[in-house]
Amino acid sequence: MFKKILIANRGEIACRVIKSARKMGIKTVAVYSDADAQALHVKMADEAVHIGPPPANQSYIVIDKIMAAIKATGAEAVHPGYGFLSERRDFAAALEAAGVIFVGPPSPAIEAMGDKITSKKLAKEAGVSTVPGYMGLIADADEAVKISNEIGYPVMIKASAGGGGKGMRIAWNEAEAREGFQSSKNEAAASFGDDRIFIEKFVTQPRHIEIQVLADQHGNCVYLNERECSIQRRNQKVIEEAPSPFLDPATRKAMGEQACALAKAVGYTSAGTVEFIVDGDRNFYFLEMNTRLQVEHPVTELITGIDLVEMMIRVAAGEPLPFKQEDIGINGWAMESRLYAEDPYRNFLPSIGRLTKYKPPVEGPTASGGIVRNDTGVYEGGEISMYYDPMIAKLCTWGPTREAAIEEMRLALDTFEVEGIGHNLPFCAAVMDHDRFVEGNITTAFIAEEYPEGFQGVTLDEEMLKRVAAATAAMNRVAEIRRTKISGTLGNHERRVGDDWVVSLQGESFPLKIAADKAGSTVTFADGMSLRVESDWTPGKSLAKLSVGGEPLVLKVGKIPMGFRIRVRGADLKVHVRTPRQHDLALLMPEKLPPDTSKFLLCPMPGLIVKISVEEGQEVQEGQALATVEAMKMENILKAERKGVVKKINCAAGASLKVDDIIMEFE
After folding, report:
1. What is the pLDDT of residue 526?
2. Is 453 a catalytic residue?
3. What would the pLDDT profile of 226-252 be if each residue is shown by its tens digit?
4. Which of 87, 187, 288, 296 is catalytic?
């Protein structure tokens, strides 16, 4: 076995690899850029080597710098994680030439599966079900239309070297096929330097389901069941689960066997993932093979008990797999929510800055018999940089059933405290409560269909509102009693805490009565409904773990005048707890309106001004580009919402701005 492994990556996946290596008694080497000098993976590793400036193309993906770090530390093997150099054939080949073990597949397998046209041809030859389509090179738009007519509409026009949704168009008729071919070709040339295009049948009501394979150097290959990855936004996975709620055992077996056949056909070793599109009738079609560890691998580990990173290392060291296909089962259900540094209330724009609070739920067994796991690469006080991927953690839960795993995830998301940046915890919580998701009735279009106008927070139903009202009334009583115990008050001025209160939240008001005892409170509503509330919450705590009506409830708590700011299940609420008289008077107060910002262009996210496209005094039209802001490898063009004249420009290209900083003013 290896004595020392270098991890050619950063963030949570570098930390994840270090954990398995440490368990195996293997020393680890981290690499880091200037931006990551204080990163968690650097602190966790036995050694760390500086490899350059923050941009990845000057540090993490410069092969010569990684090779120099290997030489300087004497590492015998390299784990590439995912992203960066993980699927670069030239990196695997450079390691092979230097006599360093690549913890991944052989370079020819990476090359074969890295090209979408080649991989589909190989899949077809290996007996893998592929989408009907034309895998050859397409000369021009006329040929594209002819092929599309033969396949049958709708068709998907795709760049061979594509990824991340670039160079991809759906055509529903001849005109769209002609136009889409040229657009895809132009986009592919600009993005990848490769304008080769192929066409295939577009699968309607598609699910994205992938098979995890594991192969050794002795001809053994097994599949470790599937993962459902259909909850995606802009081709970016948000929530994954294992197994899929849609597959039956026969389909699972057929997909698994075909995935292994493909792996063997290309001489694959190590962990890999074969991705499929599955239609509403459980017909499945090969999409692509990822020749690396997947981001969502923890859900497979939770239902199989197999450490995939450890297996990758053992396979790279030449060991045979210690199990056969018949040994692989499915134990329970696992969920994963990806925590992204992006603001769901601002159309998921990237958010950067310091984590003023970062308190994940406690990992390990839960009181209800489940498991919580959090794979992360950050810590409280750490900085979320603009230079890298916005994912900062993967929150995973396990339960004996899908319903139990979802409930564990709901509680874990409510317990997860993150402050200082925008993040998508509320959105993940909203998905967990969505009827379609709970039923398992999901496709890759789920987010686009259910949140067409973006995410504006969750509106809680009546039952949940009453649970929150009962909880906050009981919490307010605790705070009121504490206030009566302030020393130094005048004699004969003892304050009595009443039993009658009105709780106002989400536009509704609930008159209620509290009967308290040593163990908790019984809250009775005007309609006669009673809820028992028990908790050890004390004023000042930012997290309240309660039992309401015999069921657990976790609230994130902030203080506002005469009440609380409560965040729960994707909702962000101002909850006012008042006496009946205070409530009547509050109804007479005028509503405070938000400031008018219609004459300002505000920066929608923390980022760098790349370009100012207009000048002071210039008349602009609706839809005209005003400025370009960059953050986390994304450029965002800010456009005029209406016709107007630029009065003042407050910043220039190169300026670093915060959220809502004023970029320019209009007359």
Report:
1. 95
2. no
3. 999 999 988 889 999 999 999 999 999
4. 288
